[in-house]
Automatic annotation (TrEMBL):
Its cofactor is Zn(2+). Keywords: Metal-binding, Zinc. GO terms for molecular function: DNA-binding transcription factor activity; transcription cis-regulatory region binding; zinc ion binding. Zn(2+) binds at residues 86, 89. The keyword Metal-binding applies. The lineage of its organism: Bacteria, Pseudomonadati, Bacteroidota, Flavobacteriia, Flavobacteriales. One of its GO terms (biological process) is negative regulation of DNA-templated transcription. It comes from Chryseobacterium soldanellicola. Binds 1 zinc ion per subunit. It holds the Pfam family FUR. This is Fur family transcriptional regulator, ferric uptake regulator.
């Protein structure tokens, strides 16, 4: 079964591509207004995550944010990097440096969720 590209999917994808930071479902809802309902945004974001189009970030504020994937292929996410939330402007960014966390013998990493909060270059 192939997934079809709907208007809602395209609007959400365009929004994610055009932003320079990670966004929450709530932020997307405000941006898209009445064009796409909340449940559709939630479903599409999770579908994009499963398909390797976006990655999901759990912030220190307890919300999930979604960022457009740059170097991922298919369902293979490569996101061993920290995320940064500015306490002043609220912007959430993927920091560019990949991290190599050495785990004990026998352990296998599936997900990495490193998070830092502070003040971004514009707000500090």
């Amino acid at each position: 079964m192939t997934k079809r590209n709907t208007k809602a999917k395209q609007l959400i994808l365009d929004s994610l591509k055009n932003t320079k930071s990670a966004v929450s479902q709530e932020i997307l809802q405000k941006e898209l207004g009445e064009e796409v309902d909340r449940a559709t945004i939630y479903r599409v974001l999770n579908s994009f995550c499963d398909d390797g189009i976006v990655h999901k970030i759990l912030s220190d504020d307890g919300k999930y944010y979604f960022a457009f994937c740059i170097n991922c292929s298919g369902k293979q996410h490569k996101h061993n990097h920290f995320h940064f939330r500015c306490l002043e402007c609220g912007k959430i960014e993927c920091l560019p440096n990949e991290m190599d966390v050495k785990l004990p013998l026998g352990y296998k990493s599936v997900n990495f969720n490193g998070f830092i909060s502070g003040y971004c270059a514009n707000c500090s």
